[in-house]
Amino acid sequence: MINCNIPDHETDVEFLCTNEYCKDFRIFCFKCLQNEKHSTHIRDVQKIKDYGREQINRNDEDLVLELEKMIDHINQIFFTLKEELKCGNQISEEELNGLNLIQLNDLICSKIKFRKEKQYLIQTIQKNADSLIETIYTGLNEFSQIQFDCPGKKVKQEMKTQKFDMINSIQDEQINSFIFNQDASILVGGYESSKIQVFQFKKGEIKLIQQLNLHKKSIYCQYFMKKTNEFLSGSCDKSISICYQNNNQKWDLKQRLEGHQGGINCIVMNNDEDLLITSSDDMLIKFWRKENEQWECQQTIGGHSSFVSCISLNETGNQLVSCSKDNQLLIHQYDQIQKMWILGQTIRIKQWGRRLCFINDIMIAFQPEKKEQMHIYHLDNVEQLFIKSQEILVGVGSERKKNRSCFWFFPQQYVQSKQIILNKNGCCVNLIKKDQNNDFVTIQSIDFQTKAIFGRMTDDGEYLITWDDRSGSIQIRQYIE
């Protein structure tokens, strides 16, 4: 079952409303009913299990049967009219020879009048038929548009025109993290073996420039700055390394940040790149500020009772959302007066997840573990709280080890230029398109048939790079439209 979209209810939906004038959400739970939702048309409320697919199909069949009756009735009328037109005012030669001049004159007048009436009738029918045909065509076009807007139809249409095609494959050992610089000319890979490799990236081809050994354990996450030519790497060894390019055009360690008591799972920065935020297995989130060219931790927040699996900062840089195995989404707000981050909202969820991201200041995308739906949360204008508003169908893929959990890393990413969410779920990498109406549709699902997939998209959305343990290779795909 699916949860009610009102967070406080925290129960499964079980009712639906078929009243055509209803303005409330049509799928709802018992608590909604208790709150007098749909009370003015309670006769149109049914239990979902009593409605089901058979009822929907039966309604469609009734409409088709009604249309067939109308067609049969029209055919009968037209057949009668056709026979009348053929037989009307007919007279045999014998009868014609028996008429006097006055009777013959009356017959000719009658024939002329009847022909005129026939012409007028045919013209009237033709005019109404044209109007009927136009109405039918208009209806067909509207039906086509409605069908296109349905998720299943829309997916099929979009997938024909938008997708990522593989253009290159390179064998390599396990890479947990990929990052690109702003113009996608540099690619950095963080390896399971703890090494970091810097590549030149050009039109889907990569060339190794330098290898760095800055960590003692596996690389978990990375971030490439946009305002300066520096990148950060977070490791299982509980440290964060900041690298810069020296005068010899070689990458070197600039600063090492320590303070977390667990592996570093996520690194984000604000748009001004004067605020660094990190999360860890130690259940904590740390906020770092640069002073005298050195980053220092200014605030540490808790709130989660298990490892922090992902964090994301909104576009403005004043709200941070985090998720954890403790079945909570926490949203922290920056207080301008106190100059610190404070907890603004706790969202209880039934199924924890490893991936989420802000799409903009009012929208969050969250992927629950082992679910075929990605959840969208919108900021309510009145309550100023995020509530779940949509569930988007996404691929999970196939793997022999059915009970194996989804794999770490591969952060969820929203690419503004293409309005695409990059979503890793189970064995699938999903590309989800957002339209101008804030509706979402999965335009492509790439099934790797393994859950050990790691990847990233360039900031312009032109290239998608992945590594998976089934192929044992870096795969580079290009956006085709």
From TrEMBL:
Keywords: WD repeat. One of its GO terms (cellular component) is cytosolic [4Fe-4S] assembly targeting complex. WD repeats lie at residues 257-288. Pfam families: WD40. GO terms for biological process: iron-sulfur cluster assembly. This is WD domain, G-beta repeat protein.
